[in-house]
Amino acid sequence: QVQLVESGGGLAQPGGSLRLSCVASGDIDNINAMGWYRQVPGKRRELVAAITFLNNTHYGTPVSGRFIISRGDAKSTVFLQMNKLEFGDTGVYYCNADVQSGLVLTDCWGQGTQVTVST
User: What is the pLDDT of residue 41?
Assistant: First the structure.
């Protein structure tokens, strides 16, 4: 079984910054891509940013140029540095990982962490 645990969410003012972290643990042989998604009530979950095992990155259009995704040296952690926060960045942020355990590849999700941008 694999667990993803997010941390670092909270309240920030417009123009401010927050840093999210996600740690994967459990029955893991390898983690391919990792990423962050966000969701607000009434809308579909959307990709914020993703990073491959070789550190190739992709960003959703709304956050490009403001957010930075990175992975730890152990490849089991992923970070999201969120800068120049906007009201529209408010939502629940979920960590995602493509985890290989033996011959099985599983799409894993964390429980989510709330980010609120408000004055």
Answer: 87
